[in-house]
Amino acid sequence: MTTRKLGAGLSALALLAAMPAAAEIRIGASLAVTGPAAFLGDPEAKTLEMLVEAVNAEGGVNGEPLKLVLYDDGGDPNKARTFATRLIEEDEVVAVIGGTSTGATMAMAPLFGEYEIPFISLAGAVVIIDPVQPYVFKTPHTDRMACEKIFADITGRGLSKVGMISGTGGFGKSMREQCLDVAEASGVEIVADETYGPNDADMTPQLTNIANTAGVEAVVNPGFGQGPAVVTRNFAQLGLKLPFYQSHGVASDSFIELAGPAAEGVRLPATPLLIPGQLAEDDPQKQPVTDYIAAYEAKYGHTPSTFGGYAYDAFNIVIAAIEAAGADDPAAIRDAIEATSGYAGVTGVYSFTPEDHLGLDLSAFRMLEIRDGGWAPVE
């Protein structure tokens, strides 16, 4: 290469280096893509990646490309907090979706509040949005709503004495507390109250204690992850014939696969994503449910889960807020999220207010029962 050509090449490189980088809108995410909660976080991550790709293929948001900055916290609150700091200080995101678990969410939420970055959690506990924090929202139904749906079904069956067996993780602990409160308000007596740790492999002793409790008429298992599947298998191994309820934290086909035939007859509150073919044509959620399933199956070759649906709704709410705000200013995006009204998603129809950062009511929950290895609505 001649000296003249070399000099010209270096000048061109210097010019490129001096040019400002192309504008892009950065959305952050910290999810449990691996680890014990991966069956929740993996479909959430896949959903976000799919949606970002689709948005960019159509020209981006307000003419700007979208970039997803995704970290895998494995459900570890300490890692989640570290990644939250990185998303804020290094990645300069304008909004964050994530917190697969309640523990990870609660570790990150104070930071997003302090730095005024809108955050939509994908975890279930009511403590995430009660009391309301200005910059924190969530898309899954709360654990308290799940308790209300479950105990309404229990009393509807004429039952009034319940045994509980709860996980001691963040979600299980929170839901247990909510169910104790809801049970009292519903006129249901909790006659047995057992717990299990996240690494326990046999819950037969706890279930035996429940079975031996005089008057117990039904069993409720607040929890998520693999623990509820173990509880379900142990429940069947003991030959218990009581009505058995799980939480929305296991509302996916993977729970049926893990629990096997023992899952037959289990009831739980869930989203309509699990029963798309059984939704009425005029159901406002039928179209978004159908669209999401079709896109996910085309991309990944299998049906999405309820948990991916939480990410689907969070993403669409954030993007609509960015479009409405007309900018990538986090405060303006937060205001637009809070102004969301009547958004029909796969989880429910959302209408946020300054006093309500969930925006769902019990009508978004469907009580389902596992029949013949699949999902059926409870009439």
Quick overview of this protein structure:
The chain contains 12 helices and 14 strands. It has helices at 3-18, 38-57, 77-89, 102-115, 143-156, 170-186, 204-211, 227-237, 253-259, 286-300, 306-325, 330-338; strands spanning 25-31, 66-72, 95-98, 119-121, 136-138, 161-167, 189-196, 218-221, 244-246, 267-270, 341-344, 349-351, 366-371, 374-377.
Task: Provide structural commentary.
This protein is of the alpha/beta class and 379 residues long. The chain folds into two domains: 196 residues, Rossmann fold, CATH 3.40.50; 127 residues, Rossmann fold. Helices cover 43% and strands 18% of the residues. The chain is built from twelve helices and 14 strands. The strands form four sheets. The chain has a five-stranded parallel β-sheet, sandwiched between helices. A four-stranded parallel β-sheet has the order 7-6-8-9, sandwiched between helices. Strand 13 and strand 14 form a beta hairpin. Helix 2 runs parallel beside helix 11 and helix 3 packs parallel to helix 4.
Please indicate the count of domains. Answer: 2
Structural class: alpha/beta
Going across the biggest sheet, name each strand in turn: 2-1-3-4-5
Calculate the mean pLDDT score and round it: 93
Just name the CATH architecture of the largest domain: 3-Layer(aba) Sandwich
Distance between the termini: 80 Å
* Unreliable parts: 1-21
* Major beta sheet summary: 5 strands, parallel
Which topology of the largest domain does CATH recognise? Rossmann fold
Shape: globular
Classified by CATH, the class of the largest domain is Alpha Beta
Order of helices and strands: HEHEHEHEEHEHEHEHEHEHHHEEEE
How many strand elements? 14
How much of the sequence is in beta strands? Answer: 15-25%
CATH homologous superfamily placement of the largest domain: Response regulator
Please tell me how large the radius of gyration is. 23 Å
| Quaternary structure of the protein | single chain
By DSSP (H or I, 4+ residues per run), the number of helices equals 12
InterPro entries: BCAA_transport (IPR051010), Leu-bd (IPR028081), Leu_Ile_Val-bd (IPR000709), Peripla_BP_I (IPR028082)
Signal peptide: 1-23
Organism: Paroceanicella profunda
Pfam family, one: Peripla_BP_6
